[in-house]
From TrEMBL:
Entries under PANTHER family matching the protein: SEPTUM SITE-DETERMINING PROTEIN MIND HOMOLOG, CHLOROPLASTIC-RELATED, SLR0110 PROTEIN
Biological process according to GO: negative regulation of cell division; phosphorelay signal transduction system
Superkingdom, natural source: Bacteria
A GO CC term assigned to this protein in UniProt: cytosol
Span of domain Response regulatory: 5-120
Protein's organism: Anaerobium acetethylicum
InterPro entries, alphabetized: AAA_dom (IPR025669), CheY-like_superfamily (IPR011006), P-loop_NTPase (IPR027417), ParA/MinD_ATPase (IPR050625), Sig_transdc_resp-reg_receiver (IPR001789)
UniProt xrefs under Pfam families: AAA_31, Response_reg
Gene Ontology molecular function: ATP binding; ATP hydrolysis activity
Protein name: Stage 0 sporulation protein A homolog
Functional summary from the UniProt entry: May play the central regulatory role in sporulation. It may be an element of the effector pathway responsible for the activation of sporulation genes in response to nutritional stress. Spo0A may act in concert with spo0H (a sigma factor) to control the expression of some genes that are critical to the sporulation process.
Length: 391
């Protein structure tokens, strides 16, 4: 295997020597140099195709700023920060500087070698996927429509609706559709679609400064239904490094690249994902014909009202509707003082089957009444003129 070319950028000569000794006998690592300034580092990077740079946090008084500069000039470079101690903001600063990892002094040889290897592999995988994808996103004159699917109560079918709405939009309109899982802690849209994520939202945040329409598409997972998927994080611990600004950039970039953006939200209000409310053309609030569920939606509507959220954007979706329900559609509308935009019929056996198989309901059961309900919902959401043009 090719050796990983490593450069040590640190102000303390003794520390640089320690790094060199630790890496001396590692057969798959080649130490190219030890320098103390970013100017010297840049020269070596230019002439030696460096793979990984170890940057001391005190370099030129701000190793994070040095890291950010190097990463902006050499985006295929894997950077590892060496820090004196782990503080609350350390990882956040590291991520936004372009670094792939942080090592805390005194550095243990095994951790050093592991960090170099993983940082290099991460960058190689990312570069390979971007090159293979080579996306050429179609530029559009207008931004895409955003449908945010939300509920403050679990078990109402929020993810199920988001997935099948996205697929029904793609099938009915023939347009470009992306599904975004913003349930950062417990999102399972990828699981429900039987796909294994190569990248998640955390990876995009890692490269947030380089994001454009083409670049972001290389992070998305294509699904056989025709939609693209941006999964939530596999590890909830990464969520603390994601903020509302990141989500805003991601959603607006997707809005410019796709005709429709469908967002699966967490089961409650969260400052981090607030941009999904702001950019929404329609906020689809899901409830079921149950007292607890309707009560939760009532509370959510009150909260949105207090926040001066535009009532015209809010649309109620009544899910799991059956003939024997004691609470009828009109009861829901009266209680919420809000019209129900769509009533989705209950089909428990087939819904569970589609989720277990990882096949969207509207594809697996194209002729069932619930699929027709989704098509009706799409027609209500989408401009009728657009559907006529397609015909």
């Amino acid at each position: 295997m090719d050796k990983i070319k490593v450069l040590v950028l640190d102000t303390v000569g003794e520390e640089r020597n320690k790094m060199a000794q630790m890496l001396l006998n590692v057969e798959y690592i080649a130490l190219i140099g030890e320098v103390e300034s970013s100017t010297e580092a840049a020269e070596l990077i230019e002439n030696n195709s460096i793979d990984v740079v170890l940057v001391g946090s005190e370099v030129e008084d701000d190793g994070y700023a040095v890291s950010e500069k190097l990463y902006s000039e050499y985006p295929e470079l894997a950077i590892v920060i060496m820090e004196e101690k782990l503080q609350e903001e350390t990882m956040h600063k590291a991520i936004f500087s372009g670094a792939k990892d942080v090592l805390i002094r005194p550095i243990v040889p095994a951790k050093l070698i592991d960090s170099i290897y993983k940082a290099n592999q991460h960058m190689k995988t990312k570069v390979l996927v971007h090159k293979e994808s080579a996306p050429k996103t179609r530029r559009r004159a207008a931004v895409g429509q955003v449908y945010t699917v939300f509920s403050t109560k679990g078990g109402v079918g929020r993810t199920f609706i988001a997935i099948n709405l996205a697929v029904a939009l793609a099938k009915t309109t023939g347009k470009r559709v992306v599904l975004v899982d913003l349930d950062l802690d417990f999102g399972n849209a990828a699981l429900a679609l039987n796909i294994v994520p190569k990248f998640t939202i955390a990876d995009i945040v890692d490269d947030i400064r380089n994001i454009d329409q083409d670049f972001i598409e290389s992070y998305l997972i294509p699904h056989e239904s025709g939609i693209k998927v941006l999964p939530a994080n596999a590890q909830p611990m990464m969520n603390e490094f994601i903020n509302a600004g990141d989500i805003d950039v991601i959603l607006k970039t997707l809005q410019n690249a796709f005709d429709y953006v469908v967002i699966d939200m967490p089961g409650g209000f969260s400052e981090t994902v607030n941009p999904a409310f702001a950019v929404a053309d329609k906020l689809l609030i899901v409830t079921t014909p149950e007292v607890a569920s309707v009560r939760n939606v009532k509370a959510a509507l009150i909260t949105l009202g207090e926040l001066n959220y535009p009532k015209s954007k809010i649309k109620v979706i009544l899910n799991k509707v059956a003939k024997g329900d004691r609470i009828k559609l009109k009861d829901v509308e009266t209680t919420l003082n809000q019209d129900v935009m769509a009533a989705l019929r209950a089909d428990y056996k087939e819904v569970i089957s589609s989720l277990n198989l990882g096949i969207p309901f509207v594809i697996k059961n194209s002729s069932r009444p619930l699929t027709k309900d989704f098509v009706t919902l799409v027609k209500k959401l989408v401009d009728n003129a657009e559907l006529k043009r397609r015909k």
